[in-house]
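Morning - S-adenosyl-L-homocysteine inputs below, output right after.
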Amino acid sequence: MEKIKKIAISRDGKKYFIRDTTKDYHTKEGFIRKEELKKTSSIARTNTGSELYIFNPKFIDLYNKIKRLPQIIPLKDIGAIIANTGINKKSYVLDAGSGSGALSLFLSNIVKRVVTYEIRDDFIKIVRHNIQLLKIKNLNVEKKDIYLGIDEKNLDLITLDVPKPWEVLAHAEKSLKLGGFLVSYSPTIVQVSDLVNSVKNCKTLLHIKTMETLEREWEIEERRVRPKSRMLGHSGFLTFIRKISA
Ligand code: SAH
């Protein structure tokens, strides 16, 4: 897989991903000569006179290019997980199931180490592709069924995006650090109530809260300032559970 070396952005927000800086790069707004791609200045002019802004890709630029399955967890929910658990560069995290690895990859970028379990070989392949794309070094993908157990101990956070999260509670009790979090992402509220009712039978765990995040983007065009008519609606509920005793 060839690496993305540069990003070019036009004034109207169109983004181009440049993999080969030894050739002229063609866009809808004309082409940028290869000499322009090598300059230290960030502004390049195409042969038709349009300006493009060039810089090295950041994590989020590459993240937006990952191969994804339909059920990827959206950024608004990833943000809520990070903010409500306070995980940081010292944290050790387990995420299951991997899916396309969207959540695992994002967490790997901010914590010390992430292990992710996935049962399907085809998805494991996608996650490995995405790890290479993002040049992530602290994420291990393992072919394991989370319902059967968790091998890791002393975890600061377990994130779940599986159909039956309640089947993981007994394993989480043994694998979480005291004060650590289990966060479950479920599309339906019936899954949430089954999970939260099961937590009541686990002495070492406490249900902290269940929430959903709604995001509404706005259009700002001169004095035409209003919410976008289409919004990202329901994705999933987040349930926060904490390990409160040994
Ligand atoms: N959070 C992921 C998407 C996960 S989709 C992302 O952001 O990309 C749910 C995944 O869980 C699927 O890939 C499915 O194969 C996997 N899965 C389902 N049951 C599982 C189990 N018992 N153990 C591990 N993975 C499981």
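Note: Residues 6-57 form a domain with the Vcp-like ATPase; Chain A, domain 2 fold (CATH 3.10.330.20).

O.
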